[in-house]
Design brief:
The structure holds two protein chains of two kinds. Chain A contains twelve helices and two strands, in the order αααααβααααβααα. In chain B, helix 3 packs across helix 4, helix 3 runs parallel beside helix 5 and helix 5 runs parallel beside helix 6. The chains are: A mainly alpha, B alpha/beta.
Chain lengths: ~325, ~250
């Protein structure tokens, strides 16, 4: 048990150490992957937020990108009004407002849609979360003021004290710091009383109700926390790209997030980060070789999931420690 | 408080044309072990599901500690002190034995919207859970993942979890189901140690166990209670012998 714990922890520190330093070293040695790395880090935050409800809570949200998109537009819209006037209530370039706005809006949307969709299970939950995200997708598509399907360019990034988000190193470090905070939060949450109830309800909801837990309330809370965290990821992403567009919410985006979690290993802290790195790096490398990169990419992803069923993060555990399927009846 | 901890009053439940529970009246005294026996399909599990809140009765009422709980959801009943063990083992399979019991202790310790402190290092959750396991002679299994346990051990953990919710009444649905003789024996031992200190409503097929453990027995046939009495009374009751024990 101790060995496994150390291996896990070592793996976490190695992955995060590389993710935090390699892009900067490459940047200072002349090849600029920093904006790609920032995008990657933002997606890792989003995948980490999904991991809380999918990996630890067993809720397969197929519309998680909606929170990412809401977070992004929560930066884009106030920034737009700050430059072009109108909507005085939210027109500002204050970064604290932007990030707070993103988190609050995403949390609110999670609260409302979660209260409805968490009354369903399994495939119904997948479909209803998909439906909510598509609703938001078409809503943003129809907003001509904010560019409709062309998207909205952010002319002025969020203003924060001491750092400038126009500086790509600052932008990267801010995102990376946010990722570390989110990972630590998820780590604390899943080991807390709340986290154990959440994981218990994933495995056996009937049992948890029978010993006195209102599983719905715990799930909904996890859903809101997850949504808020994903909103933060979107806000950072919007600043990094200085561009927001409805496709951020497209269902394929939600699918990619699920993929990162499954590929890296749901229910482990570092899994979604590994999944995110593999995903983005593969995508970037393959698309250099061929414009038909989707095909080999898809095949590789299928193989990765088939061969590494429990996710990459679990490859490094000692054999006996690989998580058995929850429903397994090993006598 | 009266000496009747649970009163079932003219309970009726039907599925389509089948009367699974047919005007059942029954009471459980405080600290008695009351067993319900009956042939397969007599409606025993249907009855216990209505008591624990999994099924809604068509009519009739369930009074627990002088409070009408007929329409309360499962988790509220549990918080009032009504614990249920499942006929088919139902534990959190991916967690350890100690985690399972500690979760039940935690459920009694206020809400669990506590997000920061590692729950596995909170001694007021782990301590009582360990005590319950020690009482049942299961402390050696504390760190074993439930999915790696034998069937009989899981059944015992099931009871330990029910005990950890500090119940006033335990509903035990066939705790001996599928057990070998030695496993059954240790389960009878475990339940016997609760005799006189816990109120138990027991559903069980194992007649030896029932006649060893029960203070009173009710016989359920086709959804109806045909007799209630001490083990001695039931053994001698002609109706019961005819309907259930297979004698003419």
């Amino acid at each position: 048990m101790m060995v496994q714990f150390l291996k896990n922890r070592a793996l976490t520190f190695i992955v995060l150490g590389l993710l935090g330093t390699v892009p900067l070293l490459m940047f200072w040695s002349g090849s600029d992957y920093l904006s790609l790395a920032t995008k990657l880090v933002c997606l890792c935050i989003a995948a980490t937020s999904l991991n809380l409800i999918l990996g630890y809570g067993g809720m397969v949200s197929f519309g998680h990108a909606v929170f990412f998109g809401i977070g992004a537009y929560a930066v884009g819209i106030p920034a737009y009004h700050s430059v072009y006037g109108g909507m005085d209530l939210i027109a500002t370039s204050n970064g604290f407002f932007h990030i707070g706005f993103a988190i609050v809006l995403a949390a609110l949307f999670a609260l409302i849609t979660g209260a409805i969709s968490l009354r369903t299970k399994g495939i119904h939950f997948i479909m209803i979360t998909l439906a909510f995200s598509q609703m938001m997708f078409y809503f943003l598509l129809s907003l001509d003021t904010y560019g409709g399907d062309d998207g909205l360019t952010i002319d002025e990034r969020s203003q924060l004290p001491f750092i400038s988000l126009d500086n790509s190193v600052h932008m990267f470090l801010l995102s990376f710091g946010a990722l570390l905070i989110c990972l630590y939060m998820v780590h604390r949450i899943v080991n807390s009383r709340f986290g154990l109830v959440l994981q218990g309800a994933k495995d056996n909801e009937e049992r948890m109700a029978a010993i006195g837990y209102n599983t719905f309330a715990y799930r909904l809370t996890a859903y809101v926390i997850s949504g808020a965290m994903c909103g933060l990821a979107g806000a950072l992403f919007a600043n990094s790209e200085s561009f927001v567009f409805p496709e951020l919410i497209d269902w394929t985006r939600s699918g990619e997030l699920i993929f990162m979690v499954i590929l890296g290993g749901g229910g482990t802290i570092i899994g979604p980060v590994i999944g995110g790195i593999v995903f983005i790096v593969l995508e970037d490398v393959l698309s250099r070789f061929t414009i038909y990169w989707h095909l080999p990419f898809g095949i590789m992803l299928i193989l990765a999931v088939l061969l590494g069923r429990t996710g990459i993060a679990n490859w490094f555990k000692s054999d006996g420690a690989i998580k058995k399927p929850a429903e397994g009846n090993h006598e | 408080m009266s000496d009747v901890i649970l009163r079932i009053d003219h309970l009726v439940k039907s599925f389509g044309g089948v009367q699974a529970t047919d005007d059942v009246c029954l009471d459980v005294q405080r600290n008695e072990t009351h067993a319900i026996i009956g042939p397969n399909g007599a409606g025993k599990t249907t009855l216990i599901s209505q008591l624990s809140g999994g099924l809604k009765p068509d009519s009739g009422s369930i009074i627990f500690n002088d409070q009408d709980i007929t329409n309360l959801p499962v988790q509220k009943r549990c918080r009032l002190g009504l614990a249920r063990s499942f006929q088919i083992t139902s534990l959190v399979m991916s967690m350890t034995v100690l985690d399972n019991v500690a979760l039940a202790v935690q459920a009694q310790d206020g809400h669990s919207f506590r997000f920061w402190k590692p729950a596995r290092s909170i001694s007021k959750l782990r301590g009582p859970a360990m005590d319950i396991l020690a009482d049942a002679n299961l402390q050696k299994k504390a760190d074993t993942v439930v999915s790696a346990l034998s069937h009989g051990e899981r059944r015992q953990i099931e009871i330990a979890v029910a005990l950890a919710t500090n119940p006033q009444l335990m509903l035990l649905d066939e705790p001996m189901a599928g057990m070998g003789p030695s496993e059954s024996a240790s389960m009878v031992e475990m339940l016997k140690s609760l005799n006189g200190t816990k109120s138990i409503l027991l559903i069980e097929h194992d007649m030896d166990a029932v006649f060893t453990l029960a203070d009173r027995i009710s016989v359920l046939v086709y959804g109806r209670i045909i007799a209630t009495g001490s083990p001695q009374d039931i053994r001698e009751n002609q109706n019961v012998r005819r309907a259930y024990l297979g004698e003419t």
